Amino acid sequence: MGMYNFFSSFVLFFVIHLLFLVVIEVKGKGLGIGECDLFKGTWVKDEELYPLYQPDTCPFIEREFRCQGNGRPDLMYTHYRWQPLACNLLRFNGVDFLEKMRGKSIMFVGDSLSRNQWQSLTCMLHSSLPNSTYTVDRVTDVSIFTFTEYNVKIMLNRNVYLVDVVREDIGRVLKLDSIEGSKLWRGIDMLIFNTWHWWSRRGPTQPWDYIQEGSEVMKDMDRMEAFEKALKTWGAWVDANIDPEKVKVFFQGISPSHYNGSLWNEPSAKSCVREITPVAGSTYPGGLPPPVTVLKSVLRTIKKPVTLLDITTLSLLRKDGHPSIYGLGGPTGMDCSHWCLPGVPDTWNEILYNLI
Ligand SMILES: *[C@@H]1O[C@H](CO)[C@@H](O)[C@H](O)[C@H]1NC(C)=O
Ligand SMILES: *[C@@H]1O[C@H](CO)[C@@H](O)[C@H](O)[C@H]1NC(C)=O
């Protein structure tokens, strides 16, 4: 009897101990930095540490993104820091970034939103090391920014669909299952892709006349479906060509526009002009743009590791971050798609820094 009691209390003790360990493990998963969702958070004012650089310490910001230089009078939009809900972001350190990437190459591939993020990263690095020498070259569709002392190349390959547009006898053909442009991506150590904004283009700025899938050539098709097919072609390229030991692959995520105030509870707004504050809190009233769902479902089918920079929600909250009339201006006028620099893409890069 005594022996039995001793044995059962021993078992009970053991079981309770085990449960305790399980509870600790589960709690750790909820709260640990490794498990923190960097893309869920709020924008907080931080006038001391932000912006990460001043426009005049980055002489190469293109006019399109140089809002302050183009006369934007309010500057509060440069003083916000992204605060994840469950942890803190490591502050960007340009010297550490370049040390980590010494001898390596990074390539942004995509449309002008990739150019926006590329310029932001080169500004962040250059202003961390203003005396470090750099060169800028352009070879056909690739711009190459080199930090010569570190032999780090930050490149931009303009490629708005990722799949090919080919000039043929009938006209320009957007080929959903051809990805010859990928030749330029070989041998790069870190690739950051993006495509979406050009899929909805129609009229004179649509850069193709026909769309082709397999042997079928069409005048047009559902654009979201075309976007999905192209992403699958790109995903198959990743699976067939990426060695995860050598190459890190990111997808920039869908960068949102702000042309419809109904989506941020200001129905009279038809653009982002005169927006000077972010949306408060961590959810956007208008919800996510539809391509986000398509992108995430395709990313789940890719076997090789691809990290999504899931910047949509944090950028949706920044209706104040676009150039509006302080971009290229002129007849193309209102820009509520790109982002002022310094500004929101600096946060995309700060998160990228936290992920590498
Ligand atoms: C860069 O060089 C200038 C002029 O030589 C010097 O005044 C400045 O302190 C240097 N800046 C940094 C960050 O080393
Ligand atoms: C703006 O968004 C609202 C709410 O989703 C929608 O009903 C409306 O059609 C949109 N307006 C435009 C011009 O797209």
TrEMBL record:
What Pfam families would the database entry show? PC-Esterase, PMR5N
Sequence intervals crossing the membrane: 6-24
Give the CC-aspect GO terms.
Answer: Golgi apparatus; membrane
Q: What are the recorded GO MF terms, alphabetically?
A: O-acetyltransferase activity
Q: Which InterPro entries match?
A: TBL (IPR029962), TBL_C (IPR026057), TBL_N (IPR025846)
Q: Which UniProt keywords apply?
A: Membrane, Signal-anchor, Transmembrane, Transmembrane helix
Please state every residue range assigned to the domain named Trichome birefringence-like C-terminal.
91-354
Q: Which domain of life is it from?
A: Eukaryota
According to its UniProt record, where is this protein located?
A: Membrane
Instruction: Classify the protein's membrane topology as the record does.
Output: Single-pass membrane protein
Which residue ranges does the record assign to the Trichome birefringence-like N-terminal domain? 35-88
| Family, per entry | Belongs to the PC-esterase family. TBL subfamily.
Which protein, by its recorded name, is this?
Answer: Trichome birefringence-like N-terminal domain-containing protein
